[in-house]
Amino acid sequence: MTQTPTLEEIRKAPKVLLHDHLDGGLRPETIIELARERGHRLPSTDPDNLAEWFRESADSGSLERYLDTFTHTVAVMQTREALTRVAAECAEDLADDGIVYAEVRYAPELHTDGGLTLDEVVEAVLEGFRIGSTGPDGRQRIRVGTLLTAMRHQARSMEIAELAVRYRDAGVVGFDIAGAEAGYPPTRHLDAFEYLKRENAHFTIHAGEGFGLPSIWQAIQWCGADRLGHGVRIIDDITVADDGTVTLGRLAAYVRDKRIPLEMCPTSNVQTGAAKSIAEHPIGLLRRLCFRVTVNTDNRLMSGTSLSLEFAKLVEAFGYGWDDLQWFTVNAMKSAFIPFDERLALINGVIKPGFAQLKWRM
Description:
zinc ion binding; 17 helices; 2'-deoxyadenosine deaminase activity; Adenosine deaminase; globular
């Protein structure tokens, strides 16, 4: 029995990803080709150098600076062909990393500069995921659900919410709101959240990353979020005494008691300053306290990461074994925005057998 999972072994494990941005996971080579076609100027036209530029620019400790790197990726995602290609490659890359189910999010309103309508953007991305999810043998390698994101500093959240509901039977599984948290509370978009609840639709809210507990409280108690994007700052409502005794504040206790999923992205959280280091990331304490924690990539290009690599970093930092990695994975599958029976089928038919084979192989 393998005691400590290696990166190569983790890649073989059936994993689940809930928080991944389409415009944050492009292949550098693709960015360069699409930029050349569009006449967009990049910091570098060498794939390795460009990848390094994205990582260094994102590694600033500032959420706002981190978000600035998306200027270049969004710029090359303005045509139907580009969006379909990027989505297909995204599905291929996730499947190659051993991911069996993923929810990938993007903001349709950011991809209309080339003349596409919001509906055309959604249809192009859905087509790309359909293409990329299918292997050479015609079998489905990965299931991808999409989340449509509204930008919290804009005023189009209702329009995007309606778009998500319109396409929910075609592959859109939920709604999200993202962007700089400070100064743009989720309560500005209450009409969209109320609409989604009336339509029995699922949604997550970026909260507790660039702003503190009020952001989390509003997302849950005012807006009714099903999940929290990041939620790292919930740690501010947890006190650890010198003797190791842990006391949960009212909000932290509510989040744990209600099993509200936390979409944590360790490397990204360190880059944006939401956590000091992987070893000091709140995920260690939150896992010990049995919060509904999930592990995610956020932006694979900017963080130079994959879900397997995120798991490997946690193994190194916290000494996690296969049981821990399976716990995170089952948490994620339980929290996905697809029907219960489909989640259960993946847990019992794919995830648990896959981990069992890895745990017990000699």
